[in-house]
Amino acid sequence: MSRYAVLLSLAVIWIGNPGELVRLQKGENIISYNPAQLCFSNRSFAFGVATAAYQIEGGWNASGKSESIWDRYTHTHPEWVYDHENADVATDSYHKAKEDVQLMRTLGVQFYRFSISWPRILPEGFNNKINEDGVRYYNELLDELEGNKIGALVTMYHWDLPQSLQDLGGWTNPIMADYFVDYARVLFQTFGDRVKTWLTFNEPLTFCHDGYGGGDAPGGRASGLEDYMCAHNVLRAHGMVYRMYKEEFDKDRQGYVGISLDMPWMEPASPSAADKTAAETARQFLFGWFAHPIFSTQGDYPPIMRQRIDAISRRQKFARSRLPSFTEAEIINIRGSYDFLGLNHYTTNLVKPGTGKISLKPSYDDDMGVKLTVNPKWPKSNSTWLRVVPWGFRKTLNWIKNTYNNPLVVVTENGVSLEKGLDDAKRVNYIDSYLRSLHAAIYKDGCDVVGYTHWSLLDNFEWMRGFSERFGLFEVDYRSPDRTRTARRSAHYYATVAKTGCLPDKHDYKY
Ligand code: GBE
After folding, report:
1. Contact 227, 218 (CB under 8 A)
2. Nearest atom (ligand 1) to Cα of 385
3. CA 311/CA 36 separation, integer angstroms
């Protein structure tokens, strides 16, 4: 048995109600590492499961809820979704919150990451009208969680913008930051007594790049322009909400605000200098775009983005850079606006330089200038973008540690899509191998990770892929009016991990 002593600074983070639920502490004074039995130390590490409002709730127009951009999108263009489905009912969690909490009880998880639907709480988008039924729904969910001693990690925005705000330009309109602050204040006022751990946004890379720069809702399809505007306003909004929370709600420093950013590991396609540089450029464009303004000591966009986008904009004869500029005050406001980093990690890509060809039509891909591939030997999932590459998880966490001075990290998503079926040995192996990689990152490398959230509790509406991709520990029968949930093999495996804090002997779970 070998032992590693890791010294880290002290700060405390809670998921759930202080005093009752799991207490997460930044750093352990001494961490012992025993390769024979991989445990996540002393129960100060928490295991959870995640979902998002649009993907599970249904009740799309129930009791005062208004239309979101995903309602509009799936209703007007069903053909743009792979199986022409929508989430009008989804897993019907609007009616089945209690049942969902019971599933979590059987898993023995310490917290639930869910998101709040903005148009369910504020049907006009603005805070001049609060929908009481929306408040009731989340109050009941929170009560149910509390009664079962499950903490809440709440995402304010998991992509379902009120359509009324999209009609004003959505995230490309700078005023949206102010309206988001109004919305966040309502959430803090209404739920802040019970929710102490918040995420402002889920994956701005995805909803800005794919939603405003591409064909996901709202379908901006203006890459290299709208995606940069969206990101700019989202970063401003995040900084403003963080400061507002600290000033107005968190006098006793009991609450924590972070953001969930997604990062596939970017591995150089070869050891060549060119490939290494391309991989780092990709990391900065994909992750640094949002992380550098918030988590770096300098703040602002990553220098490589500024240089490349300014230069390419000039070549395309734009009067100004397509990458907007922050004011000095905004840079300061956004820099350091976090208590922890939420990391969504699933997979890895290989990176080499792109062709260098720049078309006249702006695009984020040209601006980044790299080519992403995969190793065909990496095991496939049921999603084209997701290959199983557990070592990429450890590399991602180490890169974050080294680039941003070892921030406190909660893994807010990790998981895999597979075919329908209860005997999901591949998912068991995915979770087990990724958790081993995570364990090494924490206990061998000293990465400051205090929680792991599996995506997802149950099968749900997988955005552009409809119901065709299944990420759940529980299988959902979409043909039954009850949307019956059934535990998969992976649910039993994950329950063992969540209840003991240790990875069971691998042989128990090899099929
Ligand atoms: C997360 O994103 C989301 O937060 C969550 O809502 C979702 O359910 C979960 O992933 C599972 O997908 O043409 O197929 O290559 C790929 C993970 C689009 C990061 C998929 C967008 C992965 C970013 C398009 N990607 N996503 S394509």
Report:
1. no
2. 15
3. 53
Sign of CA dihedral 85, 91, 92, 93: negative
Which of the following is catalytic: 57, 413, 462, 469?
413
Neighbours of 482 (CB within 10 A): 11
Largest CA distance in the chain: 63
CB 207 within 8 A of CB 238: no
| Region for 496 from its dihedrals, namely left if φ exceeds 0, alpha if ψ lies in -120 to 50, beta otherwise | alpha
162: phi then psi, degrees, rounded to nearest 5: -60, 135
Q: Does residue 471 line the site of ligand 1, with CB under 6 A?
A: yes
Residue 132 structure tokens: 């009481």
Average pLDDT over residues 487-496: 97
Is the pLDDT confidence value at 28 over 90?
A: no
Distance CA 312, CA 356 (A): 11
Degrees, nearest 5: CA angle 437-438-439 = 90
Q: Cα separation of 436 and 354, whole Å? A: 34
Strand arrangement of the beta sheet that strand 370-373 belongs to: 265-268, 348-353, 370-373
> Using a 6 Å cutoff on CB, does residue 210 contact ligand 1?
yes
Name the strand (E) or helix (H) holding 351.
strand 348-353
Strand pairing report for 409-413 and 340-344: parallel
Q: What is the pLDDT of residue 478?
A: 98
Angle in degrees, CA 130, 131, 136, rounded to 5: 115
Ligand 1 lined by 413 (C-beta under 6 Å):
yes
Backbone φ, ψ for residue 334 (5° rounding): -80, -35
Ligand 1 pocket check: which of 113, 115, 203, 473 to mutate, most ligand atoms within 8 Å of Cβ? 203
Give CA separation, 269 vs 132, 246, 264, 417, in Å: 53, 43, 14, 25
pLDDT at 252: 85
The 3-state DSSP class for residue 15 equals coil
As beta bridge partners, residue 151 has 111
Atom of ligand 1 at shortest distance to CA of 463?
8
**What does the alpha-carbon distance between residue 442 and residue 413 come to, in Å, rounded to a whole number?**
17
Token representation of residue 491: 């649910």
Burial per residue of 230-249, b for 16 or more beta-carbon CB atoms within 10 angstroms, e otherwise: bbbbbbbbbbbbbebbeeeb
The residue behind tokens 């495996």 is 493
Q: Is the pLDDT of residue 435 over 70?
A: yes
| DSSP secondary structure string for all residues of 22-35 | -EEEE--SS----T
pLDDT at res. 505? 77
Return the residue matching tokens 């986008």: 309
371 forms bridges with which residues in the sheet? Answer: 352
- Cβ–Cβ contacts within 10 Å for residue 396, how many? 24
Question: Residue type at 63?
Answer: S
Identify whether 267 is a catalytic site residue.
no
Instruction: Find the mean pLDDT for residues 299-309.
Output: 98
Dist. CA 190–CA 186, nearest whole Å:
6
